[in-house]
Amino acid sequence: xxxxxxxxxxxxxxxxxxxxxxxxxxxxxxxxxxxxxxxxxxxxxxxxxxxxxxxxxxxxxxxxxxxxxxxxxxxxxxxxxxxxxxxxxxxxxxxxxxxxxxxxxxxxxxxxxxxxxxxxxxxxxxxxxxxxxxxxxxxxxxxxxxxxxxxxxxxxxxxxxxxxxxxxxxxxxxxxxxxxxxxxxxxxxxxxxxxxxxxxxxxxxxxxxxxxxxxxxxxxxxxxxxxxxxxxxxxxxxxxxxxxxxxxxxxxxxxxxxxxxxxxxxxxxxxxxxxxxxxxxxxxxxxxxxxxxxxxxxxxxxxxxxxxxxxxxxxxxxxxxxxxxxxxxxxxxxxxxxxxxxxxxxxxxxxxxxxxxxxxxxxxxxxxxxxxx
Length: 373
Known about the structure:
This protein is mainly alpha-helical. The protein has helices at about 5-10, 10-35, 45-85, 85-95, 100-105, 110-135, 150-175, 180, 200-210, 215-235, 245-270, 275-280, 285-295, 300-330, 335-365, 365-370.
């Protein structure tokens, strides 16, 4: 099985998520291990010391679990997309005698993208450690030390687990008959779509059916909005709770990570809906109605994801502040309404701009090119 350069470039999102995971977890795991080396902490610093240690543990656990699930989900989504796009070629390989297991082993290259991203994140964390340690210093003078466990966990074990997941998932999807694959049937099986009833609003029904047949894309659109909402509001709301470096790190991740998550599903829509748009163009539908039939149905999922992300960051910050700082320092967390509306406005502008860019790409598909296929 040959993977083209274009296919490899789509794995950039998986590598980027892995990079964020290794960067955050290595940074806070190392700080926790280095700060734990102090045997006795002065009494006046003990409360703040314990709060910082608890915060490091919580950040590692939450970031590691959350980003790890995102990386695995994006990888599974792409494997499914790749297999559906190459079902006939894979059927020919099976007809030539290649086993499902042998073909599935070729998908190790997809899991290997997590290794490259994790290695980059691990190196970046070491580059940022001196500055972050200085910002988090409470007077103990924590020194940077090398720890082999973060290297094994986030650069070796995590990519290895993702590689195994990629092979197993590909093996599961390949359990189809050769005849079905040669006919080009979707590897997920037959999708039963209810016959469309005659309704007054045809475009609304078209949008609804478009979303119902691509539920995984709706999930990742909501997930990207969730990440943007939670990370951006968290970064802008922590100015009085943590250092500037921490807030800047969260904001950067809040910009890069949602972009990587949203790019894949929306680009998939461009690829899968090209024929539909070309036919609609030949029938005289306007540009606005054509693009709304493809992208319009996902706007609701984006707003739902944004709302869930807002609730998530509110609950997380309130819980962390109440648990770690309220009793010792009297610090309370209050939800910032201005920050919410600012982030919401920025998200709407970015999302609609991204959709506009993708819709321009989609509208370039010509009827002549579709007829030639």
